Amino acid sequence: KLGTLKKIDDYTIKFSFSEPYPTILEELVWYNCGLPKHYLKQFHPKYTSIDKIKKMMKERGFNLWINLFSDRTNWLNNPGCPQIDAWIPQNTIDRPVQVFERNPYYWKIDTKGNQLPYLDYIKRTLVSDTEVLLLKATAGEVSLQSRRIRGLPNYTLVMQNRKTGDYRVIRCLSLGKNFGTIYFNFHSKDPVLRKLFRDRRFRIALSIAINREEISGVLYSGFAVPSQALCAKGSPWYEETFAKLYTEYDPKKANALLDEIGLKWDKNHEYRLRPDGKRLRLINLVNLSWPAENVDIQQIIKENWKKIGVEVAIKPVMRDLWSTRVSGAEHEIASYQMRMGSCGFSPLRSEYVFPKSPQIHWCPMWGRWFATNGKAGEEPPEEVKKLMEIYNKALKTVSSRERIALLKQAVRMFAENLWVIGVVQEAPQAEFCIVKNNFRNVPEPLPYGVTPWCHTAQFFIRK
Question: 85-173+431-463, superfamily in CATH?
Fold first, then answer.
């Protein structure tokens, strides 16, 4: 049942719900919490004739009205959508340069009564190559940049170019990203792989066959922390025991587990054989977008797994293709990153943890099943249903202490079931942002990726 919203006076509104909704405050501070009904009614059949809507669908290339409606709610890609943000887009996100101009009706002022925002416009340049982005940033061509350039492999270059690029380097708050995270296709059309991937012993064997210390030493100068893909250290949901579960390098035990499963060696004792007699070979769909060193991580893992008889073929692809194939369950295993939760970023909001939609990387068909109330997708096993029970209960739990305890249960389940394999947690030294020296009022440490906490309307350029 939907909640109700009542105006009390010009500055006060009241939300009412039929059941507890304690996370409403978290929703309200998110960037897309409110949408303009007076504008969006024209795209909804409850308020506009379907003939008019079909005409707009045809103009914009949509077959379903709900897709048109969803597209029009994305104000970042819809210059005509009314909004109350500090800057308003003047063109769409697929343009080489997207321009945002200051909103003259923005509702905030500074402590001296000056109208915010200070900046008249923002230009967002579209760069598909991370190397080009890094070069532009270190050459001083951007005012502020962290996304796609942060990370230990780039740290030395970034620090060396501070003077010539006329910028400073500031710290970012940790998001607790796990790099090189491996996702299994639990819905594989190959019945042999499907059964193997769903066997927890197989996942454990692959995890303990990864030499995480080698990965940290070779690619991160020893600073990256071997860890499963769980919450950031220092967050309310972090537990050292579970972060370290199945991360100790033990190829002997890994081999024993594969023997126990019944995966025999070939006659040369080089590779394992599947139950159907074929060589066990996995194709790893590697996301090239992030981390930049993802292919290098997977190359080391490939060599690690070869020692236990598992052959891996690495297939690097760009982000969009990776997402399409993973959400469609058209992969065998896939590798990217994972962010379960960090200080100020609850696992309830993470798109990587609970299978509430088909976009969930580790189980898209189970996510589809939950999202459609069982009408589509694939019915999940009991453990996954229990995970979603925790999610639904946590959403309605008023006590923050009890909600943290519930989410810790979810973290524990994730660790013990090993639905994904974590590799290394991002090092604190990798959390940085390039900021031009004349670009001021930028907080340090920067709450990376959480715009409301940065108070971007107060950023200004010093003349």
Answer: Periplasmic binding protein-like II (3.40.190.10)
- Number of residues written out for the chain: 463
Q: Which CATH code fits 178-425?
A: 3.10.105.10
CA neighbours closer than 13 Å in the CB half-sphere of residue 425: 23
Return the structure tokens found at 322: 């990776």
Q: Give the number of other Cβ atoms within 10 Å of residue 252's Cβ.
A: 10
* Strand (E) or helix (H) holding 118: none
Strands 97-102 and 12-16, sheet pairing: unpaired
Every domain range in the chain assigned CATH 3.40.190.10: 85-173+431-463
Closest Cα partner for 424 from 153, 222, 210, 228?
Answer: 228
pTM: 0.80
Burial 10-37 (b: 16+ CB within 10 A, else e): eeeeeeeeeeeebbeeeeeeeeeeeeee
Q: How far is CA 182 from the centre of its chain?
A: 14
Contacts of 322 (CB under 8 A, 6+ apart): 285, 286, 287, 288, 289, 334, 336
As a three-state string, the secondary structure of 92-109 is: CCCCCEEEEEECCCCCCE
Q: What average pLDDT values come out for the chain (463 residues) when binned by 10 residues? A: 92 93 82 84 97 96 94 90 92 94 94 96 90 95 90 90 97 83 98 98 99 96 93 89 97 98 97 97 94 93 99 96 96 94 80 92 97 96 97 94 95 96 88 95 78 81 94
Q: Where in the chain is the domain with CATH 3.10.105.10?
A: 178-425
Q: Which two tokens stand for residue 404?
A: 């943290």
Q: CA quadruple 170, 175, 177, 183: dihedral positive or negative?
A: negative
Q: Which residues contact 113 (CB under 8 A, 6 or more apart)?
A: none
Both tokens assigned to 159: 């620090």
